[in-house]
Amino acid sequence: MIRRLCMAVMCSLGLVALTSVLAAETAAVKTGNTASALFAGGCFWCVEADFEKLPGVIGAESGYTAGKIPNPTYEQVSAGGTGHTEAVRVTYDPARVSYAQLVDFFWKHIDPTVKDKQFCDSGNQYRSGIYWQNESERKVAESSRDALLSSGKFKEIHTEIIAATAFYPAEEYHQDYYKKNPIRYAYYRNGCGRDARVQQLWGSK
Prior knowledge:
With 205 residues, the chain is an alpha+beta fold. Helices cover 45% and strands 20% of the residues.
């Protein structure tokens, strides 16, 4: 009897703890205590998947930015010529993760040494970029890049750091692609050599 009572209490406490965590995350969204950041690192499926594993990130949305025409489609962007790059809008809780930490996380999940490509994807639409939305973000991003260059780790960094322009969400089937199509996503990511190149550049996480 006592053992059953203890187990019931422990389950209740666990449920309360889980409910508290979920409530805190929901409250952060409802109260507007969030911020957003824009990054491009090649395939937006992969960038979205990486950021959604980072504590403090509430969600990531695949889309297109830094282009010349409004409301582009995937077919238009992937064909090249629109000026857009595949990008991700990250929504996060500044109380749990800072913009500087997002930038540092971003660097360590891309290859900043190449121009107009990322891993197996080539073309201007796959260039890497950090798109700042205010002066504070600009200073953080540029200082982070400069520190990498000063460290001697890389001779050149081709990741563009420019003011953010309109962000257009990608089609629904692209959102959370890694969750909806885990086998296809894993096949693509492994075949593209993304993680192998990241480890070569940055070492094991």
